[in-house]
């Protein structure tokens, strides 16, 4: 069963697929990101994308971990909204309801990076190759990264780990302005 947030997200997405509407000057939060922003996909269909490159980050709150999109402008830029709607309009409403987080994340990677950079490692989906691509990294003897377990587009748990085995989505750990993780067979710490 879809959670309330995902339901709202899909309702908004289907509305945008009927015709995007641009800035929502009537919203009391407008502009929540930048003046002139496109509000057609206010509830991001890729949430939680777990891709730091877009500006989001993992935050701990009193109710647990959340993916904060406060610093992501990407989904509010008109050209990106148009690209997202062009791709998603190729699928039926029923398919968009039934598809999982991985389906949407792959589409986002293709739009943002031009290709899917994440890779499956057994039952885990490793997003570190996407985030570490083109970053300045130094090899270290050992470090840790994060395993994010998702359920129906919600973060169920976050664990620190240092192996690729297991389930969940593997992302770098952000610490002191650096990314820690595992890339091309070695432990690395990279500049953000
Ligand atoms: S960081 Fe941006 S693209 Fe990612 S889930 Fe948040 S709003 Fe969507």
Descriptive report:
The chain is of the alpha+beta class. The chain has five helices and eleven strands, in the order αββαααββαβββββββ. The protein has two domains: 4-113, no CATH class; 119-191, no CATH class. It has helices spanning 4-18, 78-88, 93-98, 101-113, 128-132, and strands at residues 57-61, 64-68, 119-121, 124-126, 137-139, 145-151, 154-161, 168-171, 173-175, 178-183, 186-191. Helices cover 26% and strands 28% of the residues. Strand 1 (57-61) and strand 2 form a beta hairpin. The strands form three sheets. Strands 3-4-8-6-7 form a five-stranded mixed beta sheet. Strands 5-11-10-9 form a four-stranded antiparallel beta sheet. Strands 1-2 form a two-stranded antiparallel sheet. Residues 44, 46-49, 51, 54-56, 69, 72, 74-75 line the site of iron/sulfur cluster (SF4). This is Cysteine-rich small domain protein.
Stretches with pLDDT under 50, minimum 5 residues: none
Tell me the number of helical segments per DSSP (H or I, 4 or more residues long): 5
What is the CA-based Rg, rounded? 17 Å
The hetero compounds bound to this protein are:
iron/sulfur cluster
Helix content: 25-40%
Main beta sheet: 5 strands, mixed
Number of domains: 2
Termini separation (Å)? Answer: 37 Å
User: Strand order across the biggest sheet?
Assistant: 3-4-8-6-7
